[in-house]
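HOLO CASE FILE
Compound: coenzyme A
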Amino acid sequence: MTRPTLATARLILRSWREADLAPFAAMNADPRVMEFMGGLLDRAGSDALVARALAHFDTQGFGLWAVEVAGGAPFIGFVGLMRPGFAAAFTPCVEVGWRLAADHWGKGYATEGARAALAFGFGQAGLAEIVSFTSVVNARSRAVMERLGMVRDPADDFDHPNLPAGHVLRPHVLYRLKRPLAAPMAGSAGPS
Ligand SMILES: CC(C)(COP(=O)(O)OP(=O)(O)OC[C@H]1O[C@@H](n2cnc3c(N)ncnc32)[C@H](O)[C@@H]1OP(=O)(O)O)[C@@H](O)C(=O)NCCC(=O)NCCS
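Model generated. Tokens follow.
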């Protein structure tokens, strides 16, 4: 299956390259980036995440895209769509997620990249709903979800099954976004 490339005003969402592995490992070893991830990743764990992202594209047609700034930084992190690997009340589902190097926060890149990923998910991938979830305390990630127009219902809050009881990151919020109704096509005659 081909791995699609997406372009936004400032970003290119593309497949992963060998040259991404070292900067991605540096991100995954940065306590600022990994504050809400439950621990740092070493190089092997970081490379394994890239391998999973590539395999996800090949089986599902979408996945975590490597993000580059057009005409700028060649790799700043990932944005993409994934099927979570754990069972919860809201699975099976597709989630939109993001992880950027800290130097590239505060520029709107996560939201801009996620909008392209959502458009792909609702468009080519034909999804009816995309969710996102994070620890209650991950305010930056929740702010991205809210900027995207995703909606949280407190009744969907859940404890992440892969984190132990009492862990500060275990309580999670879930945000949902339904496929927007198709806009009328320009020039269409409308109902007759
Ligand atoms: C979560 C994460 C991706 C959010 O990144 P972010 O840069 O804060 O989010 P956005 O891309 O939406 O950028 C929004 C910020 O850019 C600012 N901004 C600057 N220029 C902008 C522009 N041209 N357009 C839009 N926003 C712009 C906004 O004002 C906002 O600033 P604020 O944080 O001071 O309010 C980032 O913190 C991260 O990678 N964290 C670690 C990994 C993580 O926790 N992932 C989520 C796991 S669930």
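CASE NOTES: The pocket of coenzyme A is lined by residues 33, 36, 97-100, 105-111, 134, 138, 140-141, 144, 147 (CB under 6 Å). The chain has a mean pLDDT of 95.
CLOSED: yes
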